[in-house]
Design goal:
Blueprint lengths: L4 E5 L3 H12 L7 E6 L30 H5 L2 E4 L3 E5 L4 E4 L4 E3 L2 E4 L3 E3 L12 E3 L3 H11 L4 E5 L3 H12 L3 E6 L11 H13 L2 E5 L3 E7 L3 E6 L4 E4 L1 E4 L3 E3 L2 H5 L10 E3 L10 E3 L4 E3 L2 E2 L3 H15 L13 E5 L2 E7 L9 E7 L4 E7 L6 E7 L5 H10 L33 E3 L4 E2 H9 L5 H8 L9 H14 L16 H10 L5 H8 L8 H13 L14 H5 L2 E2 L5 E3 L10 H13 L3 E4 L5 E6 L4 H10 L12 E6 L13 H12 L8 E6 L13 E6 L2 E6 L11 E7 L1 H18 L6 H7 L3 H9 L7 H13 L4 H6 L2 H4 L66 H6 L1 E6 L7 E7 L2 E8 L11 E6 L14 E5 L2 E5 L6 E3 L15 E2 L1 E4 L2 E5 L13
Parallel strand pairs: 1-2, 1-7, 2-3, 7-19, 9-16, 10-11, 10-16, 11-12, 18-20, 33-34, 34-35
Antiparallel strand pairs: 4-5, 5-6, 8-17, 13-14, 14-15, 20-21, 22-23, 23-26, 24-25, 25-26, 27-28, 29-30, 30-32, 31-32, 35-36, 36-37, 38-47, 39-40, 40-41, 41-45, 42-43, 43-44, 46-47
Length: 1000
């Protein structure tokens, strides 16, 4: 039986969301769904389009889950435009000449960028800002441009201006109206926004009527204004608003709204009962909606109607909260104060450039609207008050006055919201939905997002989602704990303060006073980082070594085959010819793969662990230091060449970058962090995608903070402007130390700032204004770390005892047979058909020492039980090493005949019975990988059971029998061990038979 055809024209954000709503209601089983997408790419996130210029890929912006169309048997016809609708025949014609009949048709064609009919608007270099293809064209033009102009000073215009600024262009905004964002902001809010944008060196021209565009110079353009003025530029972006894409409907005779758009009723039906419209192309009661959330609401309503449910579209909240050029802006409800008899309250902080206004009803009982510029922290509260008709506090002005200003208590928070309150307008998630998710077991923000999709649209509701979640958890009696792990009932911040205040210098001290057990892969590296941040002691001291994961233990990054990468520091990417020669000689001598990194350094891959000291001896002799590419610390300070060489540079960015890198090298932090210094606003060092970004101005340096170019890119926020070099360093000192004090474990600066109550404004009060009175202390702590810096490799090379830790095997100099060195990619030849591909692992060694041994028949070892019989001593046990050769609370590799084993030593606690402690022996092969590296794992315990945590994939293996705690089917061989007169003996056969593991 043929299914009726449901055709959808348009595959943007609303179109894809509509498809997901159809699937959620099983309508893909009832209809044959055919989707026409005009663009060559499937639906992508237009809300965060500017992130494309911050390095985010087109793929990461996609809104289509992998396999979505195949899984649900939906046909997507990409790069296909419908050219005509035949309503009588119910048939579509496309640009490829094809025809498609339909039973029901949904128009989700969206809108297009309006280009005013200005003479010359079609000249080369005149572009629009609407699609990813537009952005590619803008980027291409910007590469040969110095100045860009945006025509339009509304929401989209300022977003486009931000894009030009990110591309490093001198940016101008041309607005016909007398103020920016005339629709959303009142005069006071627009004036404050303009002052903040002017401070960002974006030139705003209001009240400008562009009469014509003419060519100017070589490939340039000139804007000529009605007042006789003009502006020369290289690129023009039209962002003067949008218009509904209603051409198809108009051509086939559908009724249009008074201002354009396809007229729809409450069920999204057009004037043809078989045709529906949703999103920006639709006009409901003559109203057009230029935001994605109303489009999503229409999509939900239409999907419900098609499923036979009673649902209607009844309008949408048009409140807007966003960051324009890094400036927080919020507009809610009747922001202009147009309601009869309404009253307004204003609060302005001139020095910090903050403007806030609320509009209330004449009887002061209801909130009608608000404007927030510079600080939108109250947005969620104000929005919920408007949407839910919540009563105003006795003093309405308390809603926008800062805390501590003598104001009355503010309105109640999430507790006062009804369950019906819409928290996420993009996905129609109510407070009740979030409560239900928490009741069903969601215990963190990620789980709530997964269950409800709240916060996964524009993201503006995330703070409120978190508040509702935490309130509901507390109501259920669930304590929102931030304990780092089972061994410490403290958060990272609390442990930092305990270490600092009580001057705790070792993990054993910390564990004895505030924890229990042996530790784990969470608290050990965390404590190691905190101790290094506070006291900066050498990491390989005996009391610190067991805390270091394999990267910090061997001062190099482990790779998947068990080898390491070596990255010498090259401050700001600067390196001498002699240094380049030395690096090349080392790479050639040790057959290392070389690669220039994104942080302007050279990485050498494929070094065996035992080769690291020799490699570093040569590099240190050539003047290099460790680059800390292995640590949660400063990685690089990226720099352009600045005023020294570049014709656009206005400051010496390279010199400043070298100074910064030499100051902060070795600083341990909650996560790795990076800096960037650009010598001009062209931003060649990509400073605004770094944790700390610095951009030169003709007056000094602008400081940007908490950017991130990683998996979830975040644009940095402007923090301070026109600083001299010394003042800049003071600010960075304070910022980094405050981040180290207050961030969570493994929290990037971008996430830290997003979760910091009060955000950038609070941080400015702490760091710039010294509101907490701690800035002198922060500076002193940073200076202490700077003064105690040491190159960890130089210290290691001078200590014979530490160098012994870099032996491949404690009882053999034969290298690991599993490591197969890889040539440079350019030298790798394809394998012949008869050859097996190189897997990076050699064939298993000859012989097999796996035997079935009964635990009951095995004599126990000294330190593990009664001593062995002489017969076993002569034939079944082999001496391997001295007990002192194995680092306490850590491991080391050894050979047992043809086998590789990992020995782990847990000494007996001082003052307790039990002799010297206990040694365990497991296979050195990390199960589930191709590498012999288990000896390099962290030793700890889970609920009192001693374990080793594998260094590559973080699996927990019991020391007593090699069983994996996460996977019952995964295990490694284990051997009995004895300690006799300070020497370690290992049985020649394993405790139990194991499936052969590769390259043991």
């Amino acid at each position: 039986m043929n299914k009726p055809v449901l055709a959808v024209i348009g595959h943007g954000m609303v179109g894809q969301y509509f498809l997901e709503q159809l699937v959620a209601r099983e309508l893909h089983r009832r209809y044959r769904i055919i989707v026409f997408g005009a663009e060559r790419r499937p639906a992508y996130d237009r809300v965060h389009l500017s992130a494309y210029f911050s390095g985010r890929s087109a793929g990461s912006l996609s809104l289509v889950p992998d396999g979505f169309f195949a899984l649900h048997d939906i046909e997507l016809r990409g790069a296909t435009t419908v050219t005509a609708i035949d309503r009588q025949r119910q048939c579509l014609t496309d640009n490829h000449g094809g025809t498609t009949p339909y039973d029901r048709l949904v128009l989700a064609t969206g809108s297009y960028a309006f280009v005013p009919p200005i003479p010359g608007c079609d000249l080369p270099g005149c572009l629009t800002y609407r699609t990813l293809d537009d952005l590619d064209a803008i980027a291409a033009r910007a590469r040969q441009s110095r100045r860009g102009a945006v025509i339009g000073g509304g929401l989209l215009g300022l977003e486009a201006a931000n894009a030009l600024r990110q591309l490093g262009l001198e940016t101008h905004v041309i607005e016909f109206a007398p103020r920016l964002m005339a629709v959303q902001l009142d005069e006071g809010g627009a004036a404050m926004l303009r002052r903040k944008i002017d401070a960002l060196q974006v030139t705003v021209h209001t009240g400008k009527n562009t009469r014509r565009i003419t060519p100017a110079g070589q490939d340039g353009l000139r804007l000529e204004f009605a007042d006789g003025g003009s502006l020369d530029t290289d690129l023009i972006l039209f962002s003067a608003g949008i218009r509904p894409m209603d051409r198809l409907g108009h051509q086939c005779g559908l009724t249009l709204g008074a201002h354009g758009g396809l007229a729809i009723d409450d069920r999204c039906v057009t004037s043809d009962a078989h045709i529906f419209a949703i999103g920006e192309c639709a006009a409901w009661r003559d109203a057009l909606f230029g935001l994605v959330a109303p489009g999503y609401q229409m999509a939900r309503a239409l999907a419900s109607c098609l499923a036979g449910e009673e649902a209607v579209f009844s309008g949408a909240d048009l409140s807007t909260r966003l960051k324009l050029l890094g400036v927080e802006v919020g507009s809610l409800g009747d922001a202009q104060g147009a309601a009869p008899g309404c009253q307004s309250y204003l609060w302005t902080d001139g020095p910090r450039q903050i403007y806030k206004k609320i509009v209330v009803s004449g009887d002061k009982t209801r909130l009608l609207g608000a404007v927030l510029v510079g600080d939108s922290a109250e947005f969620s509260t104000l929005q919920q008050m408007i949407l839910n008709g919540m009563p105003l506090p006795e003093r309405p002005e308390s809603l926008i006055l800062p805390a501590g200003s003598g104001d009355a208590p503010k309105a109640a928070g999430v507790a006062s919201l009804p369950d019906s309150a819409q928290v996420c307008s993009c996905h129609n998630v109510s407070k009740g939905d979030i409560r239900a998710a928490v009741a069903a077991g969601a215990r963190d923000l990620a789980a709530v997002k997964t269950c409800t999709r709240a916060g996964t649209g524009c993201g503006g509701c995330v703070p409120l989602v978190r508040q509702v979640m935490e309130y509901e958890l507390s109501q259920q009696g669930v304590v929102v704990k931030k304990d780092v792990c089972e061994h410490f009932a403290y958060s990272r911040q609390e442990l930092y303060h305990l270490i600092r205040v009580n001057r705790i210098r070792t993990f054993s001290q910390l564990l004895a006073q505030y924890g229990h057990g042996l530790g784990c892969e969470i608290c050990k590296p965390l404590a190691g980082s905190l101790l290094a941040s506070c006291w900066n002691d050498f990491l390989l001291q005996p009391e610190h070594l067991p805390l270091q994961d394999t990267n910090d233990r061997f001062f190099a990054n482990i790779q998947k085959d068990g080898t390491y990468s070596v990255v010498p520091r090259m401050p700001a990417g600067e390196v001498t010819p002699a240094g380049l020669i030395a690096v090349g000689q080392v790479a050639a001598r040790y057959n290392l793969y070389t690669k220039v990194t994104g942080g302007q350094r050279i990485a050498l891959f494929g070094a065996r662990m035992e080769q690291l000291p020799a490699i570093w001896r040569e590099l240190v002799a050539a003047g290099f230091e460790t680059g800390h590419a292995y640590g949660k610390s400063l990685r690089t300070v990226k720099s352009c060449v600045g005023s020294t060489w570049c014709r656009f540079g206005v400051q010496d960015s390279t010199g400043l970058a070298i100074r910064l890198e030499n100051r902060y090298k070795g600083l341990r932090a909650p996560h790795k962090f990076k800096l960037g210094v650009s010598g001009c606003t062209r931003e060649c060092a990509e400073a605004q995608g770094k944790d700390i970004g610095i951009i030169a101005t003709d007056k000094g340096w602008n400081l940007y903070i908490c950017g991130n170019g990683g998996m979830k890119p975040r644009h940095a926020d402007l923090f301070a402007t026109d600083l001299d070099a010394d003042g800049l360093i003071v600010m960075i000192d304070r910022l980094l130390m405050f981040y180290i004090r207050t961030a969570d474990r493994l929290q990037r600066t971008s996430t830290w700032l997003d979760n910091l109550e009060g955000g950038v404004n609070y941080l400015q009060r702490v760091i710039v204004d010294d509101a907490l009175g701690i800035c002198a202390e922060l500076e002193q702590e940073m200076q202490s770390v700077v003064a105690s810096y040491q190159c960890e490799w130089q210290t290691t090379l001078a200590d014979a005892g530490r160098l012994a830790l870099f032996r491949g095997f404690i009882n053999s100099d034969r290298p690991d047979e599993a490591v197969v060195m890889m040539a440079q990619r350019s030298q790798i030849r394809p394998a012949r058909p008869e050859e097996k591909p190189r897997a990076g692992v050699s064939a298993p060694p000859e012989g097999d020492a796996r035997y079935e041994v009964s635990m009951g028949a095995l004599p126990a070892a000294a330190g593990n039980g009664p001593g062995p019989s002489s017969a076993v001593e002569e034939t079944g046990w082999r001496p391997v090493c001295m007990l002192g050769d194995i680092p306490a609370h850590a491991g080391i590799a050894a050979r047992l005949g043809q086998r590789q084993i990992a020995l782990f030593y847990l000494p007996t606690a001082a003052g307790t019975a039990g002799g010297e402690g206990r040694v365990y022996a497991l296979s050195n092969h990390e199960a589930g990988s191709g590498a012999n590296v288990l000896a390099r794992g962290l030793v700890g315990d889970v609920a009192g059971e001693p374990v080793v945590i594998s260094p590559l994939y973080k699996k927990h293996f019991r020391l007593r029998d090699g069983c994996c705690l996460e996977d019952a089917g995964l295990s490694v061989s284990a051997w009995p061990v004895e300690i006799r007169q300070g020497r370690v003996w290992v049985a020649a056969c394993a405790l139990t038979a194991r499936a052969p593991a590769p390259a043991e």
